[in-house]
Each structure stands twice: as C-alpha cells, then as structure tokens.
Design brief:
Order of helices and strands: HHHEHHEEH
Number of domains: 1
Low-confidence stretches: none
Number of strands: 3
Strand content: 5-15%
CATH architecture: Up-down Bundle
Distance between the termini: 5 Å
Strand order of the largest sheet: 1-2-3
Largest sheet: 3 strands, mixed
Structural class: mainly alpha
CATH class: Mainly Alpha
Number of helices: 6
Mean pLDDT: 90
Shape: globular
Oligomer: single chain
Length: 168
C-alpha cells in the first residue's frame, strides 16, 4: 500500500520540521497564519491521524469525536512523541479492509450518519489533509520566519525516494 509509505514520509517531514524550529516559533501567533500558529496546524494533523490509527483497530472512524489535546499544539516535544506513536501505528497496517466512517456535522443538527469506507481511503484522506497543512505552514514560515530553511521537498511527495516503498 503506497499510501502507507507516503504517509510515513509526510509524517517524517513533520518530525524534521519539529526538530528544525524552536518552541517559540512553534507557538508564535503570526499574521501569515491569520492569527494562528504552526503548533495548532500540527496538532490538527496529528489529531486526525490519531483518529485514523485508532479506527484501524475499532473498524470505525469518527473525526468529529477527535480529542483536542492542546499540549500537542503548544509543546514541540509532545508533538514529536505523538507523531512517533502515529508512525508506529501506521507501520502496523498490513492490509486494506472495509471500515465505517461516522459523519457528524453541526449544520445538520449533529445527526450522525455512517458510510462505508476503507483503511486505504482514510489513510489517503489523512495524507492529503496533512499535505494541505504542510503547504500552509511552508508559506507561513517563508513569510514569518525567513531564517528557517525548509527542504525543497517539504510538503511534496514528488521528491519521495521510491526505492524503499513496500507493497503492503
């Protein structure tokens, strides 16, 4: 399952970013993030991946029920720990299979609806979601922290080393 390797690659980019910046930069509210901060974007990505990893064991994914752990968005070290745990969970994925996704939306009165999905589909969703946030972070770093030099491939799968991609 190539999406598994792609997710691990993007999560490694997040780890590299977290090791590249300091905690002040991680939590600094910036205009380039419209009054938000890098840590909040990382927290958001981690929370979605965390829900996904748990669904692999439960068979149901419900992103609306994700836990909001503000310590992830405020503490780089905590975020690094969570990314490591998520990567370990993703490494355990050995196959694609059907799961159920619970959709809950406040516009519809928080009515819950269950739709069929799959491990691969939800992993692909999380990958695309993470890439979107990394590209937002990349723009923000260029605007607010020009002293930070991100690798050219940050938020990009095109430059991924495909020589080690597994078939699982």
């Amino acid at each position: 399952m190539h999406v598994k390797d792609e997710s691990l690659y993007i999560l490694e980019q997040i780890t590299d970013l977290l090791n590249l910046i300091n905690n002040d930069q991680y939590v600094k509210v910036t205009e380039s993030l419209t009054g938000n901060y890098i840590g909040r974007h990382i927290q958001h990505v981690i929370e979605f991946y965390d829900v996904f990893v748990n669904c692999y064991y439960t068979g149901t994914v419900d992103y609306y029920s994700k836990k909001h752990d503000k310590s992830i968005g405020k503490d780089r070290e905590r975020a690094i720990e969570k990314v490591h745990l998520i990567k370990e969970g993703i490494k355990e994925i050995t196959s694609d299979f059907a799961i159920t996704m619970c959709m809950t939306h406040p516009v519809f009165g928080f009515k819950r609806d269950f739709v069929p999905s799959s491990v691969k589909r939800e992993l692909r969703f999380n990958l695309e979601h993470a890439i979107n946030h990394l590209l937002i972070i990349k723009r923000a770093i260029k605007a607010s922290f020009p002293e930070i030099e991100l690798p050219d491939n940050f938020g990009d799968l095109k430059k991924m080393d495909v020589s080690n991609i597994s078939s699982a």
